[in-house]
Structures are given as C-alpha cells and as structure tokens.
UniProtKB/TrEMBL annotation:
Keywords: Cell membrane, Glycosyltransferase, Membrane, Transferase, Transmembrane, Transmembrane helix. It comes from the Bacteria. The keyword Transmembrane helix applies. This is Dolichyl-phosphate-mannose-protein mannosyltransferase. The chain crosses the membrane at residues 12-31, 37-56, 68-88, 135-168, 226-241, 247-265, 286-309, 418-437, 449-466. It is found in: Cell membrane. It comes from Acetoanaerobium noterae.
Length: 499
C-alpha cells in the first residue's frame, strides 16, 4: 500500500503542478494583453500580491500566542469583508437573467401555491437539479415578501460563513490556522461579485465545505469516524443545491483509501488473538457515509413527492447528463452553452429517449476528429479556469446598460483594471505551484493536502466533459484558496507551530 501511495502522490503532484502552471501561463502570458496589462506588469502584480499574502501570514503569526488580539484581527478582517460585500450589493443592481431569473420567478409562483413549474415539461420538471434551490428561494419570497435584496443579504451571510470554513480547512491542510485564508476570502473578487447573483453555488458552498472540514478532522483522527455519517448527509444537501456532490464523494473515498494508515489486521501479540486494525474504522465508515447520503436524498425528495409538489425525484434527469456532455464538445461554441444544443430537447417534443439518441449521434460526430477534440479541451480548460472572477463580474453587470447605476465609478474602474483581479488569482496559483515544487523534491506535503489536489483534479475532469461556463468553477474556488493559504508560510510554521 505504501508503494501505491508514493506512486499516486508523485503522479498527483506532477499533474496538479502542470494544471496550475497552465493557468498561470494563460493568465500572465496569453490573457494579460487582453486586459490592457503587459506581461511584465502582470507578473509584477502577481508577485506583489504574493508578497502581501506572505506579509499577512508573517504579521498574524506574530500574534499566535496572543489569542485575544489574533481573533480580534480575524473579526476585523471579516467585518471588512462584510463592508465590501454590502458596498457591492448596494452599488450594483444586478439584473437576474437566464436560469437565475427563471428560478426567482418560479420561486415567486411556488410561494403563492402554484406548482405548475414542477409539472411534466415544466421548467423544474425538465431541470430537476434546480428544484431545491428554487424551493429555497420560495422560502425567501414567503418570509420577505419577494425581496431580492433580502436574498442577496442571505448570499452575503453564506459567503462569510464559507470564508470562515475555508479558514478552518486551511488549518487542517497545514500546521495551524491560516489567517491568510480569511484575508483572501474577505477581499477576493469572486466572493464579492457572486453575492449579487442567484447562483445555487452560493448556497451549496458552505454545505459542501462544512462536509470537507468534518472529513479532514476524521482523517486526522480529531473526531470519531462515525462523523462520516454527518459528512454524507451534508454532501447530500449540497448536491441537492449543486449537482457536484459525486466529485466530493469520489475525492473523499480516494483520499481515505490511499492516504489512511491502516492494515487489515494488527500484529498479534503473544498469547492474544488477531484483531482488526482500528485504522480500518475510517474506511469502513465510508459505507455509512454513502448510506447517509442516499437516505438523505431519498427522504427529502419523497417528502415533496408525497406532498404533491414534485412529480419525480431530482435524480431522475431523463438523460440530461448526455445532453450536457454533448454540448460540452460543441466545437463552434467552444464547449459552452449554445442555442443549437439547448433547443435539442424542445425540438424532439421533450421526448427524452429521442433527445438522448440525437445527442449521442452529435457527440460521436464531434469526437471523430481527435485533433479538434484536443484543441477544444485545451480551450475549455483555460476559459474555465483562467478567469480570476469566475465570471462573477459579467453575471453581476450583464444587461446593466438600461440601469441608471451602470455608470457606477467602481464598474468603470473594474472595466479598465480587471488585470488586478487576474493578478490576485495568479498569486494564489503561484503559491500552490511553489508548494508543489518544493514538496516534490523535499517530500514536505502533508497527507491531507492531497485531498485538495484530488478535489481540484476532479472538478477539472468534470468540466472537461460537460458544458462549460467560467462560473461553474466557482464552487472549487474555496478549496483553491485553502490550498494557497496552506502553502504560504508553511516552512516557518513547521518549525514554530501554529495557532
């Protein structure tokens, strides 16, 4: 098992390094001229931000033994993050379009007792993965009288909760809590921009990353392995809001089985019977995690089915997965959303069997030219992971030309200085790359750090296959932040300890 772990670790480091290197090169050498920033300026800003992160880590490390001061500073950082989010939300009156607008409109109807969107061929029947998010929005409608601003305030609260969870997770990935993580989360643009958008990822992120925090504590034997039952329930809830739960599940299972220290049996002491290794309890509890995830999903779905709200469970997507994969390999649209593939289901009269057959035909044709497929995958990867705001600025400001706040000075500044957003993101990527390079040669990477790498690679694989949009990668950004924060000041904390 040790040989397998060593081989897997080396391969994962190499793969992750080149994935992050590709992002770094794209941001600084390919995309930077498009954002009015020469290569040298982009690199200089990247190094500048990295030095700021290191300085914050060093400064906070000085207060590690003065916990009252330390946590007071953490509170100030969180408060500053709150002010930035409130300022953005108040300054930009985002128009909810596409699925965001349709979900909010549907939620208003549900709040009034109209469940027609769940009926056959209705919006939430066709796209059942949006059902629970829409139900959540309907609750906001009922409580606040359809206040969109109230939902944005909820997003802000969830964003700050995610920031605190990332702060705790980064501590599990390194040798102590990393104040750098909450500093980054407080001021990083996507975690500000997305509060204005009715994206299900805002709700799902804190749920998923609470599950990640519990898992890492189980892995490090800080809490009992039976907490994996709670992990399973949380992953189910997160998946009901954002259908990426399987990526987290696969990452947890792979990480636990490969990096846990266990053997099938303990060595027998003289005169005593053989015993199962206690280290096996964690891997065995993975079964309970899967059961908890399934039961939670089943129960919540059938509560609404028996209540007459849902017509089918949310996992019954009617072949939508193959439709998303087919759209993901549309060469003309660069694997992004396109009208041709979007209309496929409607063109066959919402006959899911016919739609699946047609999608498979198109997909087979699109995969026939291997060179074009490789080019498409390359373009999808850099578009998906090369935007430092993950599309947050676009979705926050799209169609604002009819809005009187479109001339907001802040928006004008961002339009001409977006390269600062890119450089901030680039600095996070560089921090991880330096950690991986050092870890490869000096074997300094902690077992739990590999979990973040596995999770990131899982998201890369997912978005290589399905329809791609930059905003889809937002759910991975908390883990990217945790990895970056855990990479900064690691050598110093190794010798000095952490808070």
């Amino acid at each position: 098992m040790t040989k397998i772990k060593d081989l897997f670790s080396k391969a994962l480091i190499i793969l992750s390094f080149f994935l992050f290197l590709s992002i770094f090169v794209y941001i600084n050498y390919i995309a930077s001229p498009n954002f009015k920033a020469p290569v040298l300026k982009s690199l200089a800003l990247t190094l500048g931000f990295l030095l700021i992160f290191i300085a914050v880590d060093y400064f906070m490390d000085k207060f590690k033994n003065k916990k009252a001061v330390y946590y007071a500073i953490i509170g100030i950082i969180i408060f500053a993050g709150l002010l930035l989010r409130l300022y953005w939300t108040n300054s930009v009156s985002t128009i909810q379009i596409s699925d965001f607008g349709r979900m909010w409109e549907s939620a208003g109807e549900i709040a009034e007792g109209n469940f027609s969107r769940f009926q056959k061929n209705g919006y939430l029947y066709t796209y059942p993965h949006l059902a629970f998010t829409t139900l959540f929005y309907s609750l906001i409608h009922m409580i606040t009288g359809s206040s969109l601003m109230a939902m944005k305030f909820v997003n802000i609260g969830l964003s700050l909760l995610t920031a605190f969870l990332v702060y705790l997770i980064s501590g599990e990935l390194s040798n102590g809590k990393k104040a750098t993580a909450i500093f980054i989360m407080a001021i990083n643009s996507p975690f500000i921009f997305f509060n204005n958008i009715l994206d299900s990822q805002n709700i799902a992120a804190p749920v998923f990353y609470f599950a990640v925090l519990l898992y890492l504590k189980v892995f490090k034997k800080k809490i009992h392995p039976l907490y994996l039952v709670a992990v399973g329930a949380l992953l189910s809830l997160g998946n009901l809001f954002r259908s990426v739960g399987p990526i987290f599940v696969i990452a947890i299972i792979m990480h636990m089985l490969i990096f846990s220290s266990y053997s099938l049996i303990q060595k027998r002491k003289k005169g005593k019977p053989l015993k199962l290794d206690k280290g096996l309890l964690g891997p065995l509890c993975l079964v309970l995690m899967l059961v908890a995830m399934y039961v939670t999903t089943f129960v919540l779905n059938y509560i609404f089915i028996w209540a007459g709200v849902f017509q089918k469970p949310t996992w019954d997507t009617g072949g939508n997965l193959i439709l998303y994969i087919n759209a993901g390999f549309n060469h003309e649209s660069n694997g992004m959303w396109n009208q041709e593939d979007y209309d496929l289901l409607r063109d066959v009269g919402f006959d899911y069997d016919k739609a699946e057959i047609e999608a498979r035909k198109r997909l087979e044709q699109r995969l026939s030219d291997k060179d074009k497929v490789l080019t498409l995958i390359s373009n999808k990867y850099r578009t998906q992971w090369g935007a430092g705001d993950f599309g947050g600025l676009y979705w926050s400001t799209v169609e604002l030309e009819s809005n009187p706040k479109a001339t907001n000075d802040m928006l004008v500044w961002l339009n001409y200085h977006f390269y600062y957003v890119q450089a901030f993101y680039s600095a996070l990527i560089l921090a991880i790359m330096l950690k991986l390079a050092r870890g490869y040669y000096k074997n300094e990477i902690k077992p739990e750090f590999y979990f973040g790498l596995i999770l990131f690679v899982g998201f890369v694989c997912l978005h290589t296959l399905i329809e791609m949009q930059p905003r889809y990668g937002y759910i991975a950004m908390p883990m990217i932040t945790a990895l970056a924060a855990a990479s900064i000041g690691e050598r110093r904390s190794t010798y000095e300890g952490g808070v």
